[in-house]
Amino acid sequence: MAARKTDGSADVAAGQPAGGRRRRDAAATREALLQAARDRFIRLGYDRTTLRDVAADVGVNLALIKRYFDSKEGLFKAALAGTPRFLGGAGEFPQDRAALAEALSRQLAAGAWPEFGEHPVLLLLRVSGDERVDSLRRQALRDFSRRVLEASGAAGDDDERLLRAELLVALGVGIAVVRSAVGLRPLADATADELIGPLRDVVDGLLAPPRPGDAV
Amino acid sequence: MAARKTDGSADVAAGQPAGGRRRRDAAATREALLQAARDRFIRLGYDRTTLRDVAADVGVNLALIKRYFDSKEGLFKAALAGTPRFLGGAGEFPQDRAALAEALSRQLAAGAWPEFGEHPVLLLLRVSGDERVDSLRRQALRDFSRRVLEASGAAGDDDERLLRAELLVALGVGIAVVRSAVGLRPLADATADELIGPLRDVVDGLLAPPRPGDAV
Amino acid sequence: MAARKTDGSADVAAGQPAGGRRRRDAAATREALLQAARDRFIRLGYDRTTLRDVAADVGVNLALIKRYFDSKEGLFKAALAGTPRFLGGAGEFPQDRAALAEALSRQLAAGAWPEFGEHPVLLLLRVSGDERVDSLRRQALRDFSRRVLEASGAAGDDDERLLRAELLVALGVGIAVVRSAVGLRPLADATADELIGPLRDVVDGLLAPPRPGDAV
Amino acid sequence: MAARKTDGSADVAAGQPAGGRRRRDAAATREALLQAARDRFIRLGYDRTTLRDVAADVGVNLALIKRYFDSKEGLFKAALAGTPRFLGGAGEFPQDRAALAEALSRQLAAGAWPEFGEHPVLLLLRVSGDERVDSLRRQALRDFSRRVLEASGAAGDDDERLLRAELLVALGVGIAVVRSAVGLRPLADATADELIGPLRDVVDGLLAPPRPGDAV
DNA sequence: AATGAATGAGCTTTCATTCAT
DNA sequence: GATGAATGAAAGCTCATTCAT
C-alpha cells in the first residue's frame, strides 16, 4: 500500500469504564474488535483495512487479533459471520411480493444498520481473495435469491423466474453500493418512505406473473 | 496486501514489432500500459494491482509508468478517463424507454466489453481513496441518471423521477457487480437475449408514467 | 523466526492421574516441562523452540514456565543442567583405552538416550547466546577431555596428550551431529556393534603411547 | 526472538569509495550482502541472523535483499552455494592417506578461511528448516565421504569402509564445531602443524587396511 | 498455585517511489 | 527516452513476557 489514509482513527471502546484501559474482559474485547473491523472492512475494504488500525480503534494491542481471530482472514470471516443476512432471519422473510418491496426499502434505507455504519451487504462485496470467502458470499446472495423466488408466488419457467429473483438481488446490491460507496444523490439520501414506491414498481415489474398475452 | 496472486502475468504488447525490443513508440507504450492497467484494476481492484505487474504485462520498465502517469493514482485516473461512459457516447444514448431496456441488456451482457475483460463500470467502483476520483465516479453516474431521465419521457414530480432514474443506474451497477465480482448464477451467465425481457419489465415498472388511479 | 513447524505437538504428561487435570504436583509439572523442553531444544534448537509449544506439550499454562524457570534462558539452563554428562557419572567412566571405545560406541549409537530422543550432547551445542551457558558447555566438554586423558594411560608431552583427548571429544561431538542433525548414512543408522571396531582403531590411533622411535 | 544481540553491527562496505554511499554497483553490492550474510549465518545461525542486520552491515536498504535473493531462504542458499567444498575442488583432493591428514589439518586450522571468519562447514550445520537445504547439506557431506573413500585405497567390506570414511567426516565436523562454536582449548588454538600429527594417527587408524590377523 | 488476558518489540516481506546512469 | 539500482514506509505476523484475577 504505502498510500494515504482516509479514516480518522478514533478510540471507540464503547461501554468500557472510561478513563482506565480496557482490562480483562475477553468477550467484550473480542466484540469490540469485531465491531471495529466490520466498520473498517465496510468503509475501506479488505486491503485498506489494517489490523494495526483496528486494534488502535479499540485501544488494544495488535497481537490480540491473532489471539482471538488467528489472522486477518479469520477476522474478516468472523466479521462476515456475524453479519445479519441480507433480509432478516428465516421467519422474518416477507412472504409475498407486497411485503417484499417494503422490506427492501426499509433494509436499504440509510441508518437501517446503525451497528454497521453502512449496509452490511457491502461487507460481502469487499474482496478478500480467499476462495472460501468468495464462496460464503455467493452462498449468501444465492440464499437471498431463493427466498425472493419463494416469496414471488409466480408461476412459469423456472430459470427465468430465478433470473428475475437474482435481478432483484442485483438491484439491492446496486442500491447499497451506489448509496454508500458512491454517494449518488438523491438516492443516497432517500428515506425508506421515498424508496418504497419505486421499489414496489420494480418488484411488481420483475416478479408479477406474466400478464396474459405476453410473449417471452 | 498480503500474498496471493490471482492473475497470470502474460506479456501483452500486442501489435508490437516482434523480435526486437519495444522501441521508441511512446504513444503505443502508453496505450499498452493503460490497457494492462485497466485489466488489472478491474479484475483485482486498486490495491491488489501492483505497478510492477502492470509494467511486466507490457514488458517495459516500471519507471515508465511514473514518466507517463506520474504515480499509481495518475495511472488509475487515466484508466478511468479512457473508460467509455456507462451507456455509449452522447448521440448513441437510447431515446426512449423501449430502447433503454434493450441497450442496457446489451451493455450488461457478458463479453460486451472485450477490451476491458469485464464491464467497465466496475472500474468506477474500485476505490482509490482520492476525492477527485470519487468525484469523477459520481459525475459519471449522475450523467447517466440524467440521460435516463431524459429518455424516460415521464412527467411528474422531478425528484421522484430522478430517484427512479438512479434506481435504474443502481440496477446496472448491481448487475455488473453481481455478474463479475460475485459470479451469481444464472445471472452471471445470462445472455443479452435472456436479460432483455426482465429488464424491459423493470424499466417499465420504474419509468412508466404512473398509471391512472395509482396513488404514490 | 518465520513460519514452519517441524514438530508434532503431542500431549505428554506421562504418569499423571488420568481423567482429571494435572493438579497441584509442582515437582511433577516441573519435571514434565523440563522433559518437553529438552526434547524441543535438542530437536529444534533454542530459537525454534517456543515456550508456548513446550507448555502445550505438557498441557499446562505458559505462565508456569515463568514461575518455575523465570525465563526461556532459565528453562534452557535447567534443561542443560539436568543433562547427563557426555559419558556417564564419575564412577562409571571407563578406566582404560580398551573400555573407552566400547563406551563411546554405546553412547553414540542411536536410541542410547531414550529420554532425550537424540543424543544429549546436541543440547550442549544449541546456542543460547548467553555467556554463562557457553561456559557451562565448555566446562562439560573440558571435563570429558580430562577424563579421557586420565583413561588414556599415556605418557609424554602433556599438551599434545590433551590435544589428542580433545580430538576424541570432537569426534564424539561430530558423530552426534552428523547422526542426528545431518542424518548422514550409513553412519546415522550404525549400531553400537558396527561402531565399535572403527572407534577402537581411532582411540588406539589417538591415545596409544607413541611407538618407540617416533619423533613428535 | 525478542532476545539479546551478540554481534556488533559494523559497516563493512569494503572496497567502496569511502565517504559517500555505495552507489550503483549491483555486483559489488550483491557480493557484499553475501559476505555479510555468510558471516552472520556462521556466527549466529539462521534464526538469529536478521536481514536488517545483514543490510545494515553492508549499509544498504533491506529491500535489496529481496531484489537480489528474493527471501531469507534464498539468501541462505546463495551463501551456501558460494561456500567452498569441505576439502577443495575436484582436482585438489588429496589422493592418498598420507596427504589426507595433512590436507585436513590445514583445512581445519584457524584462519584458513579468512573470507568466512569461521570454518565454512559450520554454515552447513546452521539449520534452516528447509528440506532442500538439508538435502544440500547431506549431499555435500556425502560427497566428501565418497572422496575420502577413494583416497583411502583400502580394500575390504564396502559398507564398513564407507562407515569409516564417514567417521572421518564426523571428526572434521566435530573439530570445526568444537573449535568455533565451543572454543574448547587447546584444540581451538592449535595450529596446522600441531594438528597434523594426531590427525595422521586417526586417518591411519581409520583408513589403514586391516592388519593381518585382525578380526572385524 | 495457576490461568488467561494483554503488551511490546521485532522480523520478514511487499510496494510505490526516487535517484543515477 | 529509458533502465535498473536503491530507498522508505508500512503491513501481517510471531513470540517472550507481564499483569490481573
UniProtKB/TrEMBL annotation, chains A, B, C, D:
UniProt key word DNA-binding: yes
Region annotation (Disordered) ranges: 1-27
Family annotation (InterPro entries): HTH-type_TetR-like_transc_reg, HTH_TetR, TetR_C_16
PROSITE patterns hit by this protein: HTH_TETR_2 (PS50977)
Domain HTH tetR-type: 27-87
Protein keywords: DNA-binding
Recorded superkingdom: Bacteria
DNA-binding region ranges: 50-69
Matches recorded under Pfam families: TetR_C_16, TetR_N
UniProt protein name: TetR/AcrR family transcriptional regulator
Lineage, opening ranks: Bacteria, Bacillati, Actinomycetota, Actinomycetes, Streptosporangiales
